[in-house]
Write a structure and sequence with these properties.
The complex is a heterodimer of chains A (364) and B (290). Chain A is an alpha+beta fold and 364 residues long. Chain A has helices spanning 52-60, 102-112, 117-130, 146-158, 176-193, 204-210, 228-233, 238-243, 334-339; strands at 14-23, 26-36, 41-45, 67-72, 75-76, 87-90, 164-168, 196-201, 213-218, 221-226, 248-251, 260-261, 264-265, 276-281, 286-288, 297-309, 313-320, 325-331, 346-352, 357-360. The mean pLDDT of chain B is 89.
Chain lengths: 364, 290
């Protein structure tokens, strides 16, 4: 998805080196290093208080870092005032100016740059067309729906061709359907403009859907940076495995050379790292199997605890002999539904060796 | 839904409206008794004398140039006080609105503190400060800034200084309330779009605070039009305002007709001004209809 940017100029690469921000004893940004390629769509993903918004605001210039370096291209912007950075920011609550019309909002950054009237009109039309709001220019902000406000904020943030586009949880106020639609829209817009984009969210699914790369952040540090698939399929630590997607983690037996769980060897495709300590079981990667079905499977015996019908899938919870609970998803076609065992029956859960992930407590 | 159930619900709604009306009736009654009836009575009095219906009270106002002068001074002083309270109150309200909430509440309490002292006491305090040998003049003279004491009292300046002080909280409170409701994220957005701080202030914050300026100005201006005690004391009889003339007519000459006519004219002019401002400045649009 990163290649083939037919239109728009190449975005500006961003370099972050040893960026530190402390509040009292609390290190909000703990010596962060990050390289973002020109035109990349990078998502900062983390729980609340992880430092993702702090990092975004530091890039925008609203938070002054204690030390470290921030570069747009070859330009050091670490100490540059925010209004000189030429960045477009889409804020969580849109921050549209209520005393201006849609067109006046979008024209605002152009007026500040002393563009002449015809140029302003032309660019405003272009930006409104880009977000599919042609003909909305004369509307008041109060006449717009949440999704339309979101689009105006987006148009205003890109109309002046910023070198960087920052988005701070821009979709969190929208309902699920609209949110998913806007994810695709923003993605499309990014491909059209080719502007380097940093997107902040706490929604892992949104991050997986939209990003070229995701930087998972926790306690002011990067837990892992990588493409969505790499993060999901090869999490570097327990935190990443648990934060992205649903997963139950089972602790391996301590002090064993080969990975074992309750004395039984765990079959894997690749030899796990030395400090590996948990098996990752994702609901869609495990299934109910007959007793010791195949040599390629890791099997866990337990009791079927509950069956929850969720429409597109059925979520089963299985209590293992050791007391841990596993979740697994089954499709809802008639055959699968008919084959479901009864509650409180003993079942065998299988995880194929090729899908068996083993992660350490902390990334190496 | 069954028809009888719908009827029952309608009855409930009707009862609820009646109950609300009953709860607000004391306030309605109060307004009726202390405002509408006296104003109506005033209106009536201004059109009668001992021989019945007459326009003589109004004719007298129109023919006597002294009255024109009195209205001019009344509106001028009110206007000056309003402008000065905006000039003094706006930065103060801005500062308070940018402080953390707790500090802002302490600041607002300090602004409201003068209300705890009697108006008369505050007015006489200004008299002491502003007179020829008062604190202000003696300080300025000992600092060598002036050689002669300034005439700060028993004239327009004294009246305006005193009234500005009394009126300031009435300006600061609506200003503060409006400014507090302006999303600080808007300033941030403006800066991110390329506005230097001062430009963001003048293009975003200032227009959004305008409804507060208008509310505060109306409050101060209208209050000033009928202000009596402070201009009476600090004007020392040399500044004649409508309020003083009304009192004079009513108590000294027992001419309720003339006093009423003055009151009616003041009321009508004030209402006209209010309407004019409403037309010139579309407050509704500024406030937004969200």
């Amino acid at each position: 998805m990163t290649s083939d940017k037919q239109t728009g100029k190449a975005g500006v690469p961003i370099t972050i080196r040893q960026l530190v921000k402390t509040y009292g004893n609390y290190r909000a940004l703990d010596a962060l290093d990050l390289d973002i390629a020109g035109g990349e769509f990078l998502t900062l993903l983390g729980p609340s208080g992880s430092g993702k918004s702090t990092l975004l605001m530091a890039i925008a210039g609203f938070i002054r870092p204690d030390s470290g370096l921030l570069q747009f291209g070859a330009t050091d912007v670490t100490r540059l005032e925010p209004h000189r950075r030429n960045i477009g920011v889409v804020f969580q609550n849109y921050a549209l100016f209520p005393h201006m019309t849609v067109a006046q909002n979008v024209a605002y950054p152009l007026k500040l740059r002393n563009a002449d009237k015809s140029r302003i009109d032309e660019r405003v039309q272009w930006a409104l067309a880009l977000v599919k709001l042609e003909g909305f220019g004369d509307r008041s902000i109060h006449q717009l729906s949440g999704g339309q406000r979101q689009r105006v904020a987006l148009a205003r943030a890109v109309v002046f061709e910023p070198s960087v586009l920052l988005m701070d949880e821009p979709l969190s106020a929208l309902d699920k359907k609209l949110r998913e639609h806007m994810q695709i829209e923003i993605r499309r817009l990014h491909e059209k403009l080719g502007v380097t984009t940093i997107y902040v969210t706490h929604d892992q699914r949104e991050a997986l859907t939209m990003s070229d790369r995701i930087a998972v952040i926790n306690h002011g540090r990067f837990a892992q940076i990588g493409a969505p698939k790499a993060l999901y399929e090869k999490p570097a630590s327990r935190f990443v495995a648990e934060f992205i997607g649903d997963a139950t983690l089972l602790p391996l037996d301590a002090g064993q050379k080969q990975p074992t769980f309750r004395g039984r060897a765990v079959k894997t495709k690749e030899t796990p790292q030395d400090n590996a300590s948990y098996i990752v079981l994702r609901p869609e990667k495990i299934r109910l199997v007959g007793k010791e079905e195949d040599a390629g499977w890791n099997c866990f015996a337990g009791t079927l605890d509950d069956i929850v019908y969720q429409g597109e899938s059925v979520l089963l919870s299985v209590r293992l002999e050791g007391g841990e609970t596993l979740f697994l998803r089954q499709p809802t076609d008639q055959q699968s539904l008919a084959a479901l065992p009864q509650r409180n029956q003993p079942v065998e859960v299988g995880l194929h060796a090729n899908d068996t992930l083993i992660v350490p407590e902390e990334a190496a | 839904m069954a028809p009888h159930a719908a009827e029952a619900m309608e009855g409930d709604a009707r009862r609820e409206r009646l109950r609300l009306l009953a709860l607000s009736s004391p306030a309605f009654l109060l307004v009726l008794i202390v405002l509408l009836i006296p104003v109506g009575w005033l209106f009536f009095l201004s059109f009668v004398d001992k021989d019945g219906f007459t326009l003589s009270h109004y004719a007298r106002l129109w023919q006597n140039d002294a009255y024109f002068e009195i209205f001019r001074v009344t509106f001028l002083s009110s206007f000056l006080v309003t402008v000065l309270t905006v000039v003094l109150g706006y930065p103060l309200a801005y500062l308070l609105s940018q402080l953390p909430r707790r500090a802002a509440i302490i600041g607002l309490t300090v602004v409201l503190l003068p209300f705890w002292t009697s108006l008369l006491v505050r007015t006489y305090a200004w008299l002491v400060l502003l007179q020829r040998k008062g604190l202000v003049n003696s300080t300025l003279m000992s600092l060598g800034i002036i050689d002669e004491p300034l005439n700060l009292v028993y004239n327009m300046s004294g009246v305006v200084i005193g009234m500005v002080h009394i009126m300031l909280p009435f300006m600061v409170l609506p200003l503060y309330a409006t400014m507090r409701s302006i999303d600080p994220g808007l300033m941030r957005a403006a800066i991110s779009l390329g506005a230097p701080r001062h430009k963001a202030f003048f293009t975003i914050f200032a227009p959004l605070s305008l409804p507060g300026v208008i509310a505060g100005s109306l409050l101060v201006f209208i209050y000033c039009l009928g202000f009596y005690i402070t201009p009476q004391v600090l004007g020392g009889g040399r500044i004649n305002l409508v309020s003083m003339k009304i009192l004079e007519n009513a108590t000294i000459y027992s001419d309720w007709g003339a006093a009423s006519a003055l009151g009616v004219v003041l009321l009508v002019v004030t209402l006209l001004l209010f309407k004019a401002i409403q037309i010139i400045v579309p407050v509704d649009r500024l406030m937004g209809r969200s």
